[in-house]
Structures are given as structure tokens and as C-alpha cells.
Automatic annotation (TrEMBL):
Species, as recorded: Variovorax paradoxus
Domain Aminotransferase class I/classII large: 32-394
InterPro entries noted in UniProt: Aminotransferase_I/II_large, DapC_beta/gammaproteobac, LL-DAP_aminotransferase, PyrdxlP-dep_Trfase, PyrdxlP-dep_Trfase_major, PyrdxlP-dep_Trfase_small
Protein name, entry field: LL-diaminopimelate aminotransferase
Cofactor(s) the record lists: pyridoxal 5'-phosphate
Origin superkingdom: Bacteria
Keywords annotated in UniProt: Aminotransferase, Transferase
Length: 406
């Protein structure tokens, strides 16, 4: 067996299952889960119609690169959303959801024969696929803390020059999971300057880009690249998905875009990896990328939900409205002494509300303590009434502390 598999850590939801083992939640309260970031809003009917109308495509092998109509749907959306002009033949590829592409991109980019061992860098906290992709590519993960005092901006300047010199791939997530922070143009400039100096590839995970709470939509890495005089997107690949934008997590559909030279190598890898998108899924995807009305409605639902929930929680938790995404990244009260696991377990036991301990989404490092410790992630994916009910229970739970600890 591949010995690198032994280096993988349990996924956060497996750890949560273990944390709750043996706990019987209070039967007075129906279960409410804020633990998993799975969209729960209704899938638009026109997307389902496009999928079912094209089931005949299941009788043919799909092309790994997708057909031109699919790739053009991607570039048309990039033109509408960001005023960017990309070549559908060379600068975009379909992927089976951003998770699959984040993993396989690392296998394409990283040279495991490099000496010293190559580095794959990510924010801390982070989406665990970044870590797994790094480990299974033969690289050493390196975690860079997000700074609460700077709206959870990643402290790139804290990384030693010797680490940058070994870095081959940097994962960024903007809007961030779990913090909801959006990278500024100045942050992108800093990262591009470092990439130019050291030659590493930037993988920009942008799957939450369409759920935002400010008037100005989040800046894409591709958009930043053009604004900063890099129209060729050198060493940059952006990844996005329909899962959150269009409420179709089961469709497993997204695309990557950026540096044509990397796209070419990624296509070669994917041809062998067997990552082609079904023709039926492609048809549904074209329909979804071509419509914005359902996206506006989806965003309005999240805005109303966060407007109802955040003020309830602000008096009892260290939390505020994020820039974007559908998470609240909340600090727990000092009485819990930073024990986010105990907080989550007691909340589940007493009020049957599931939240994810923040420490499960981050790591202790030689240069910083686990930045998720003492925080919880709440995914506001359920209907507004259910999220409000969960918030009200959390308020009651916190107000009963420390007596409520159990």
C-alpha cells in the first residue's frame, strides 16, 4: 500500500462522530446541524430539467476536456462576472467539483523527486483536502496562520525565505472556509510577487464567491491578476464550482481556469486519471452557468439568514458578519478555556445542536498554536427558521455556562 496514506488525518466529520460517541442529546429538542457545509436550498428546477433531458448522453464516453459549448459556458460566465476574456480552448477545463480538482492539481504540479522535499502551503485554518493533496503528492504541508486582528488575512510575511524557496504550490481560499474572509488586491500582489520570485503555482479556491454580504462582490484571483498586469495568469489556477452557487452539491460540477501551460499539463493528467464530466451533467452545468437569477435569489436567502442569526449570537460569542461564504467562525466564551471540543459536545448533549470544533480545521505548528482552538464553525445552510432556532439555543446554552459544562 502507498505509505503516504498513513499520514492522512481523520476527516473533521469523522472526528466529530467520535466526539459525540456515547452522547444522547436532550430529546426535548429536535436535531439541528450546523456542522456540515452542505447547501440545503432547493435545486433550481431548470437545472434538473436540463439534466433529465440529456440522459441520452450517458450512452457515450465524454471527452476529458469537455466540448466547446461547455468550455464556452465557463468563459461566458467569467466575462459576465469579472469582465475577463479567456480562451475556451486553452484556459479552462471542466472538473467534477472543486474538491476533486484541488486534489488532482497538486498531483499534477508537485515534483516529488525535488530535493529538498517540496512544500505545499495553505492557510491555517484550512479545507482538509489541501493537506491530503499535499501529503499524497509527496510534499510537506506548511500552514500559515490567518490573523483575526486583520480580518483573518493570511500572514504570508511570517513565512521564512527558506520555506518559500522550497514551495511548489500554494492553496488560497477566498472567500475563505471557515473564516469567510476575502483577499484584497494588495494581498494578491504580495502573493504574485512571491510566486514570480520563487516559481510556485497558486491554486485559488473560489467556490464560495457567489455568497457574499457586501455591495462589492469578492475579488477573484484571475481578476486580480489582470488588474496587476498579469493577463496571462502565469502560475495561477482558479477553481470554482456549482455546488454552493446553484445548490447542486450532488452534481459534482465545476471548472478550473488560468495559466494555459498548466491547464495543458492538467488535461494530460486528467486524461489518465479518468476525470471526464458526463454529458448529462455538462448539459445541466451549461444551463446553470448561463443563469444568474437563481444565484441572486440564493444570495438573498443567505443574506436574510445571516441578518437574522448574527445579531442573536454577537452578545454571547466572538462573531461578526463575514465578508462572504455561508459560515460563521465564532470564538467561544473564555469560561471554556479554549476547549472547543468540550463546548461542541456539551451543546450537542444539552440542546441537540451540532457545530464543528474549530481546532478540527487547523493544525498546531512549530511556529504557532492551532488557530482554530477556541472557535467553532457554524454552517448556516438550513432554512432561516431552523438557523434562528439553533442560534437561540446556543444563546441559552452560553448563558447557562459554566454550570452547563458537562
Amino acid at each position: 500500500m502507498n505509505p503516504l496514506l498513513s499520514r492522512l488525518q481523520p476527516y473533521p466529520f469523522e472526528r466529530l462522530k467520535q466526539l459525540f460517541a456515547g452522547v444522547t442529546p436532550n430529546p426535548e429538542f429536535p436535531a439541528i446541524s450546523l456542522g456540515i457545509g452542505e447547501p440545503k436550498h432547493a435545486t433550481p428546477g431548470f437545472i434538473k430539467d436540463a439534466l433529465s433531458a440529456n440522459l441520452g448522453a450517458l450512452a457515450a464516453y465524454p471527452a476529458t476536456a469537455g466540448d466547446l459549448s461547455l468550455r464556452t459556458a465557463f468563459t461566458d460566465w467569467l466575462k459576465t462576472r469579472y469582465s475577463l476574456a479567456l480562451d475556451p480552448a486553452t484556459q479552462v477545463l471542466p472538473v467534477n467539483g472543486s474538491r476533486e480538482a484541488l486534489f488532482s492539481l497538486a498531483q499534477t504540479v508537485v515534483d516529488p523527486t525535488a530535493s529538498p522535499q517540496p512544500v505545499v502551503m495553505s492557510p491555517n485554518p484550512f479545507y482538509q483536502i489541501y493537506e491530503g493533496a499535499a501529503l499524497l503528492s509527496g510534499a510537506m504541508p506548511y500552514y500559515v496562520a490567518s490573523v483575526p486582528a486583520r480580518n483573518f488575512a493570511v500572514a504570508w510575511d511570517s513565512v521564512p525565505e527558506a520555506v518559500w524557496a522550497r514551495t511548489q504550490l500554494v492553496f488560497v481560499c477566498s472567500p475563505g472556509n471557515p473564516t469567510g474572509a476575502v483577499m484584497s488586491l494588495d494581498e494578491w500582489k504580495r502573493l504574485f510577487d512571491l510566486s514570480d520570485r520563487h516559481g510556485f503555482v497558486i491554486a485559488a479556491d473560489e467556490c464560495y464567491s457567489e455568497i457574499y454580504f457586501r455591495d462589492e462582490p469578492p475579488l477573484s484571483g484571475l481578476e486580480a491578476s489582470v488588474k496587476l498586469g498579469r493577463p496571462d495568469f502565469r502560475n495561477l489556477i482558479a477553481l470554482t464550482s456549482l455546488s454552493k452557487r446553484s445548490n447542486v452539491p450532488g452534481l459534482r460540477s465545476g471548472f478550473v481556469a488560468g495559466d494555459a501551460a498548466i491547464i495543458k499539463k492538467f488535461l494530460l493528467y486528467r486524461t489518465y486519471h479518468g476525470s471526464a464530466m458526463s454529458g448529462a451533467v455538462a448539459a445541466a452545468s451549461i444551463a446553470a452557468w448561463g443563469d444568474e437569477s437563481h444565484v441572486v435569489d440564493n444570495r438573498a436567502q443567505y443574506r436574510a439568514k445571516f441578518a437574522a442569526v448574527t445579531p442573536l449570537l454577537e452578545p454571547v460569542l466572538d462573531v461578526r458578519l463575514p465578508d462572504a461564504s455561508f459560515y460563521l467562525w465564532a470564538g467561544i466564551p473564555e469560561v471554556w478555556a479554549g476547549d472547543d471540543e468540550a463546548f461542541a459536545r456539551a451543546l450537542y448533549a444539552q440542546y441537540n445542536v451540532t457545530v464543528l470544533p474549530g481546532s478540527y480545521l487547523a493544525r498546531d505548528t512549530a511556529h504557532s498554536a492551532n488557530p482554530g482552538r477556541g472557535r467553532i464553525r457554524m454552517a448556516l445552510v438550513a432554512e432561516t427558521a431552523e438557523c434562528v432556532e439553533a442560534a437561540e439555543r446556543i444563546v441559552r446554552f452560553v448563558q447557562s455556562s459554566p454550570q452547563g459544562r458537562g
